[in-house]
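Structure in, sequence out. Go:
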């Protein structure tokens, strides 16, 4: 699995912030969630103040992360023979489609999880949100993105007070 590159890949940013997370071998401390998210997205995330552009940055990275996680899951499933030459074409198509266009239909019931981005489905778009064996990356705000990245195992929140949205 590949995480977008940041300038301080193996650094230890162990300051005195109220929050701490681990990403790979790196521990990051921060006072705000946007500072934690910058450890994943990159320092340029902190340079932006327009809420729409911040959302677009989170969305872009959510798609990249969802793609990388899906590729990793598919590779492991092939190695474990959960996917093979007997797997139907629809399943392969959905698993290998770009995350922006993956269309599992109303329900995804395959044993191999599907990784999708919440903002690409209802209520944010006119695409119906599927149910089933789906892992979601949620870029709607900093807290939702951090929570979903932790749920996928990409980051581990080590310490937190009440989560606060950056001002």
């Amino acid at each position: 699995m590949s995480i977008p590159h940041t300038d301080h890949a193996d650094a230890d940013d162990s300051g005195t912030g109220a929050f701490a997370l681990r990403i790979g071998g790196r521990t990051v401390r921060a006072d705000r969630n946007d500072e934690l998210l910058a450890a994943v997205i990159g320092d340029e995330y902190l340079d932006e103040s327009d809420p729409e552009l911040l959302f677009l940055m989170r969305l872009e990275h959510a798609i990249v992360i969802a793609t990388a996680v899906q590729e990793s899951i598919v590779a492991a499933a092939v190695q474990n023979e959960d996917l093979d030459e007997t797997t139907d074409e629809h399943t392969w198509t959905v698993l290998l489609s770009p995350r922006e266009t993956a269309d599992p239909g109303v329900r995804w019931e395959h044993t191999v999880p599907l990784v999708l981005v919440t903002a690409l489905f209802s209520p944010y778009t006119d695409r119906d949100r599927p149910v089933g064996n789906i892992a979601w990356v949620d870029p709607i705000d900093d807290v939702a993105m951090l929570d979903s990245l932790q749920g996928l195992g990409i980051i581990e929140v080590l310490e937190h007070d009440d989560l606060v949205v950056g001002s």
